[in-house]
Amino acid sequence: MNGGWSGRRKPSLDPCAVFGKWASGGRRSAGQLPAEDRGPDGEQGPDGDRGSGTVVGAVLVVALLTLFWTGVQFGATVVAGHRVRAAADLAALAAASYASRGERAACDRAEWVVRGMDATLLSCERNGARFRVRTEAVRESGIPGSRRVTGRALAGPAHGERHHSDHSSR
Fold first, then answer.
1. What is the C-alpha separation between 52 and 70, in angstroms, rounded?
2. d(CA 122, CA 135)
């Protein structure tokens, strides 16, 4: 047995049926169509089309890619903003936890935290037992005007708590 092969040949496909009329035609230079394939005004294409669909398609692809790029850049800016605000929160908490060692030591600790999160400490101010911190990060690429993101935070003891260096009575 021949494994189910009956010996019959499969019908060959006509190249014109697969590739259209042009497959059977002779050599033509680019842009020339036979008279039967020209439009009523002698224009190219069977329906007088000169490839305007290709131009429209290309413009739509460019528009979609631009929209996609803008969305990605907007998302990256949002993520960078969250990161910078988190750096400010952690820096303010670090400064508040180092408050007993003095303002300079507390702000140095806040700066260490901010640098660890790839941001810049803009300011660190003590107001009593609380610390106010401002941070910033600059994105290297993106939509103009959204490359610089900032964060700020305030941290200190919870309401009603005494700071251990505060010697006032309750």
1. 27
2. 5
Give pLDDT tens digits for 95-133. Answer: 999 988 989 999 999 999 999 999 999 999 998 889 999
Residue of 82, 74, 80, 92 whose CA lies nearest to 144: 74
Q: How far apart are CA 123 and CA 101, in angstroms?
A: 18
**Would you kindly state where each structural domain of the chain is located, as residue ranges?**
52-155
- Report pLDDT for 105: 93
pLDDT in tens, 3-12: 555 555 555 5
pTM: 0.59
Q: Is 123 helix (H, G, I), strand (E, B) or coil?
A: strand
CA 64 vs CA 8, 29, 57, 70, 77: distances in Å: 51, 35, 11, 10, 20
Residues 153, 88 contacting (CB under 8 angstroms): yes
Euclidean distance between CA atoms 72 and 84, whole angstroms:
18
Long-range CB contact pairs, 164-168, < 8 A, 24+:
164/100, 165/99, 165/100, 166/129
Contact (CB, 8 A) for 45 and 39 = yes
